[in-house]
Design brief:
The chain has seven helices and seven strands, in the order αβαβαβαβαβαβαβ. Strand 2, helix 3 and strand 3 form a beta-alpha-beta unit. A seven-stranded mixed β-sheet has the order 3-2-1-4-5-7-6, sandwiched between helices. Helix 4 packs parallel to helix 5. The longest helix has 13 residues.
Length: 209
């Protein structure tokens, strides 16, 4: 299947993307909705989750992506492989995440990944960056005790900015790591490593209270 061609970046503040998605009903999208959930925010073409879902059938995987054609393509691939534990949703996570997670059962959200989000380098475009206080607060509120958030980027200033937002939440414990803890790598991560460029990574764990 030829790849869908899309713009590398879209403006998340454009009128077309300024909508609030409806709450997700896990029972309607997964074969076994009670399984632990891995949420990937900014799933792009979805190949990372596709491979993860194949090797971890006892876990559900949900990808959120703002580029609608990529979501359609990824869901077609998941359907072709008959993966009942994988789903992608077209959404603007920066705006919609609190509402998307609204009806999640307590304890189901075990893992969150945010990998190589668009840095929006120019100062005037900083407001377009994905990771913001409200989104992170929604993640922390729904993350199960002991659940983990994995973040990585090859842009140093963006790493510092994102890590600082997560550090504001006392419910989280920061863990420094040198390598990706998953057996699967995104296409972006592979490309960065091939150029021998640094990658900045952290894990934030929801402490048990």
């Amino acid at each position: 299947m030829p790849r869908v061609r899309v713009h590398q970046h879209v403006n998340p503040l454009a009128p077309y993307f300024r909508f609030v998605s409806k709450p997700i009903d896990l029972a309607k999208i997964f074969g076994c909705p009670e399984q632990p959930l891995h949420l990937d925010i900014g799933s792009a073409r979805g190949r990372f989750l596709l491979k993860m879902a194949e090797i971890e059938p006892r876990q559900n995987f949900l990808g959120l992506e703002i580029r609608e054609p990529l979501v359609a393509e990824a869901n077609r691939l998941a359907a072709a492989k008959n993966l009942k534990n994988l789903r992608y949703e077209f959404t603007n996570a920066t705006i919609s995440l609190p509402n998307l997670l609204k009806n999640f059962p307590a304890g189901v959200l075990q893992t969150v990944t945010i990998q190589f989000p668009d840095p929006w380098y120019k100062k005037k475009h900083a407001k377009r960056r994905m990771v913001k206080d409200e989104m992170v607060e929604a993640i922390v509120r729904h993350l199960a005790a002991g659940g983990r958030i994995f973040i990585q980027t090859d842009v140093e200033f963006l790493a510092g900015e994102m890590f600082e937002i997560f550090r504001q939440f006392e419910e989280l414990k920061e863990i420094e790591i040198a390598a990706n803890p998953f057996s699967v790598k995104t296409e972006r991560e592979q490309a960065v490593e091939e150029k021998s460029l640094p990658v900045y990574r952290r894990i934030f764990e929801r402490v048990k209270k």
